[in-house]
Amino acid sequence: MLNSLQSSTALHNGVNMPWFGLGVYKVPVGAVALESVKMAIKAGYRSIDTAALYENEESVGQAIKESGVPREELFITTKVWNEDLRNNSVEEAFETSLRKLGLDYVDLYLIHWPVKDKYKDAWKVLEKLYKEKRVRAIGVSNFNIHHIEDLMSSAEVKPMVNQVELHPLHSQPELRDYCKKQEIQIEAWAPLGQGRLLDHPVLQEIASSHHKSIAQVILRWDIQNEIVTIPKSIRESRIKENANIFDFTLSSSDMEKINALNENQRFGADPDNFNF
């Protein structure tokens, strides 16, 4: 049932992942990251998404420790950065993330980008960590269909999650259909289009009809499309507002209007053409 902030989806290995979480990309390390994660957990969030690249894993770990919520009730995601794929130091990178987070395990570990000629070797390391029960689930981020097919040609364990840029202007219908058939859970980063969608007239009209904000409408659209979503915010009021999406439902006509906004418009890098 999608009726609360703790509602979750079962990944194909049976692990439950909350539909809704907090992203901490570009959230400054230290007090800002610490307080925003603590505010989110206090507001009922149970999923926190970080990455080695974000350089705030220590703050996230500290917030988890100070939150008073038992570790097993939280779902913590982090990611291995491209440099570690290129240096064949994925396992060392994982150990570093674990140490910074101050945790014994992470719930989800992702390959951050499909680094050419490197992600299949990296996946072998993630499979090893998974078999050793050091991670509860493994997945990928920013993988297109051909990347996943290439990965699965030599994988023993199928990815459980694919986290990609996904919002109404870039709604990725083909990738979503493919992942659904493969039982790979799709997850949206930048679900609000990095703030660029918050004055869209079509979304404004739908939001007004429900007495909700545009952000709430987009996040509700995610949930109703069975997309795990992790909006980022550092303001308490916004953290609470983003999560207040379980008391209304978008009609099929609302959903169709939002689906029709797709322009395949990326605001982030192209997974087939990135240079970092």
UniProtKB/TrEMBL annotation:
Keyword Oxidoreductase in record: yes
Family of this protein: Belongs to the aldo/keto reductase family.
Active site per UniProt: 54 (proton donor)
Site (Lowers pKa of active site Tyr): 79
Domain NADP-dependent oxidoreductase: 33-263
Keywords for this protein: NADP, Oxidoreductase
Residues that bind substrate: 112
Highest taxon listed in the record's lineage: Bacteria
UniProt xrefs under InterPro entries: AKR, AKR5G, Aldo/ket_reductase_CS, NAD(P)_OxRdtase_dom_sf, NADP_OxRdtase_dom
Organism: Neobacillus cucumis
Protein name per the record: Aldo/keto reductase
Organism ancestry: Bacteria, Bacillati, Bacillota, Bacilli, Bacillales
One MF term in the entry's GO annotations: oxidoreductase activity, acting on the CH-OH group of donors, NAD or NADP as acceptor
